[in-house]
Amino acid sequence: MGIVLIWCLAVILIRWITSKRRGAISYDSSDQTALYIRMLGDVRVRSRAGFETERRGSHPYIDFRIFHSNSEIEVSVSARNVRRLLSFQRYLRSSRFFRGITAPNSSNILDDDYNGQAKCMLEKVGNWNFDIFLFDRLTNGNSLVSLTFHLFNLHGLIEHFQLDTMKLRRFLVMVQEDYHSQNPYHNAVHAADVTQAMHCYLKEPKLSKSLTPWDVLLSLIAAATHDLDHPGVNQPFLIKTNHYLATLYKNTSVLENHHWRSAVGLLRESGLFAHMSLENRQLMESQIGDLILATDISQQNEYLSMFRSHLDRGDLCLENANHRHFILQMALKCADICNPCRTWELSKQWSEKVTEEFFHQGDIEKKYHLGVSPLCDRQTETIANIQIGFMTYLVEPLFGEWARFSNTRLSQTMLGHLGLNKASWKGVQREQCGSGDDADPAFEEMDSDILPQEPRLS
Ligand SMILES: [Zn+2]
């Protein structure tokens, strides 16, 4: 039996090595460095009811293997062991969390204290000043699971939809784990932050009085999964490296399509809604898709002009399911780019994280002569310039219209923070270069695949 097993493993290994994996990209550089960029894209697309989902854990990682010498191989191997250990710890932590078990030792006193503080924070989950970074530390990196589970409960969704809480928890653990914790920005904490913001918008009077439990359910799932399995690089990077996802989605909303399909894959795998009719499940999957696809920033002009037209005509009627759905798309778009509307302390941290991710992509592009994408060059860009451009061309126009739709204290608070944060970045910009108040021209020069040209606030 042992020999058969070894033979089977050997065959599998040889097949794996010799198979041309989808999305594999190799570069040979002139300095004899065997550079191997591999998008670990062992995706097995399943087809069911005419709809394709992405296999859980398809993980479009950008994995760099550089083999210079034996010593580097050793470093690479030991780094891999550390990663293996870390993922094992992550597995342990999440499976214990999933089973509701805490380690029976004296450090529990500390855990209990943290749990108590996390519970305390959840009492103010609808507060715009909610500190998601602190909440993530208090929950030992489980902010997305804890927060979303709490919101399902708070909105009465568990009861209304007769949800199995074990399945719900399992689903949320899978969602959280399919975010890449090594991404500085596009990780589970960002997803938790967007979900918290979405909750704040759902509570706004205009929405709360007309939303159905179905709307709330879809909104929270879409918010929690909207960047699922994000590889930490943008669409142009995937296109220029011929990533299989770019081919699969024909270079259009590549990431958003992947997030959506990944979310659907997890929904089906968890069986969370297995008790619902097939028709309702299919409707849910497609509506979650509409919400997630709306977060494609390159489509912002289209959504914004539609929003403006409705507001100008004053014809939005939230009794109409289509109109409600459109407003939820706008709400999710706001939640996704609301970082500049948070307090300076929170907003600044997000700015640093997103820039780190951009610059990391730029470093890769430089190293492998891929052409550095706009906003990704650490030599020529600064956080302040990027943020001022982002606020001017994307955030201000969107939140300006949102405040027209929902002119509440929250909207005014968000616009207030936005103005203050922009002024703070302008102060930083002046200190750094002693010059003016220019927004980053990259936002104006970008082609529509990256970010659209946004009309200025009129
Ligand atoms: Zn996002």
From TrEMBL:
The pathway it acts in is:
Purine metabolism; 3',5'-cyclic AMP degradation; AMP from 3',5'-cyclic AMP: step 1/1
Q: Where does AMP bind?
A: H186, N187, A188, V189, H190, D227, D336, Q387
Tell me which SMART domains the record gives.
Answer: HDc (SM00471)
> What InterPro entries does this protein's entry cite?
HD/PDEase_dom, PDEase, PDEase_catalytic_dom, PDEase_catalytic_dom_sf, PDEase_CS
Molecular function per GO: 3',5'-cyclic-AMP phosphodiesterase activity; metal ion binding
Q: Which PROSITE patterns match?
A: PDEASE_I_1 (PS00126), PDEASE_I_2 (PS51845)
Provide the reaction this enzyme catalyses: 3',5'-cyclic AMP + H2O = AMP + H(+)
Q: Which domain of life is it from?
A: Eukaryota
Q: What class of enzyme is it?
A: hydrolase
Q: What is this protein called?
A: Phosphodiesterase
Species: Columba livia (Rock dove)
Q: What is the lineage of its organism?
A: Eukaryota, Metazoa, Chordata, Craniata, Vertebrata
